[in-house]
Design brief:
By secondary structure, this protein is of the alpha/beta class. The chain has a single domain, classed as Vaccinia Virus protein VP39 (Rossmann fold, 3-Layer(aba) Sandwich). The protein contains eight helices and seven strands, in the order ααβαβαββαβαααββ. It has a seven-stranded mixed beta sheet, with helices on both faces. Helix 3 links the parallel strand 1 and strand 2. Helix 6 runs antiparallel to helix 7. It starts with about 20 loop residues before the first helix and ends with a strand. Bound molecules: S-adenosylmethionine (SAM). Keywords: Methyltransferase, Transferase. It holds the Pfam family Methyltransf_25. One of its GO terms (biological process) is methylation.
């Protein structure tokens, strides 16, 4: 295998929220439950990517493992990759507990937790049927997002499905001050204490991009966009097909 070149963006370096910090990891699911309906999100992704029982799906940036836990009941193999080793350990323990409690212990064998990220995960074996990533791609600056998308396309079958959910800006950038002030007020109402501070860190330190840039990058990487949805000026989802 080729050594990692010195010029490669260091995706293990934590920017914004530190996902190697155990207190962040342990509180993550509770924090998300205040501002997201994660069960509904995961069910929506599973409907859209249409996994067959023989399929292999990769999630990049699996976090605490909600998607792999659900997907393991639907397909042959789920590869759950993340750059944070403590996050992977948490996800593995959670999957084990949750699946045993649900009487689905055999599903655990279908999940492979892997240390690796958008720029470093190397896929071996049959090309992937589907790739999913949620709230993780914004950890890379735009040039490296483009590289990540090209790498993902290179791992997938023709016609395979890529689902992306992320913080992507679709408001008018000329209105950024009004938008961010209003957004933070709204987040304080919904998420309570701590949420606006997470968002402040996101806006200031992480690499959310603009919707039209994201769409061009996805298409240039070799995908056609079947559906693009923008919500609240801040959240986007893309269902994409790998072109031949
Ligand atoms: C905000 S969490 C999202 C977790 C989960 N997908 C969700 O929907 O809640 C972001 C995750 O992406 C991971 N991450 C950050 N940079 C990454 C990279 N370059 N490649 C893969 N994962 C990355 C972090 O360690 C963290 O677990």
């Amino acid at each position: 295998m080729r050594d990692r070149p010195a010029w490669l963006y260091d995706e293990t370096k934590q920017i914004g929220t530190d996902y190697e910090d155990l207190s962040q990891i342990r509180g993550y699911d509770q924090r998300m439950a205040k501002i997201r309906d994660v069960d509904r999100e995961v069910a929506e992704v599973l409907d859209l990517i249409e996994l067959s029982p023989e399929a292999t799906v990769l999630e990049l940036g699996c976090g605490t493992g909600e998607f792999p836990i659900a997907a393991a009941g639907r397909c042959r193999k789920v590869i759950a990759a993340d750059v944070s080793l403590p996050m992977l350990a948490f996800a593995r323990d959670k999957a084990s507990l949750r699946l045993r409690e649900a009487g689905r212990a055999t599903d655990l064998q279908r999940i492979e937790f892997v240390e690796g990220g958008f720029l470093t995960y190397r896929h071996e074996g049959e090309p992937l049927d589907a790739v999913v990533t949620a709230f993780a791609l914004h950890h890379l600056p735009d040039f490296w997002k483009q590289v990540a998308l090209i790498r993902i396309a290179g791992m997938m079958k023709e016609g395979g499905r890529l689902f992306i959910r992320d913080v992507v800006y679709s408001f008018d950038p000329a209105e950024y001050e009004i938008f961010f002030d209003r957004y933070l007020l709204r987040m304080a109402e919904i998420g309570g204490e701590g949420t606006p501070q997470d968002m402040v860190i996101h806006i200031r330190d992480e690499h959310s991009t603009i919707g039209w840039i994201m769409e061009r990058m996805i298409e240039r990487a070799g995908f056609s966009i079947e559906a693009a949805d923008y919500r609240a000026g801040f959240i986007a989802t893309y269902l994409c097909l790998k072109r031949g």
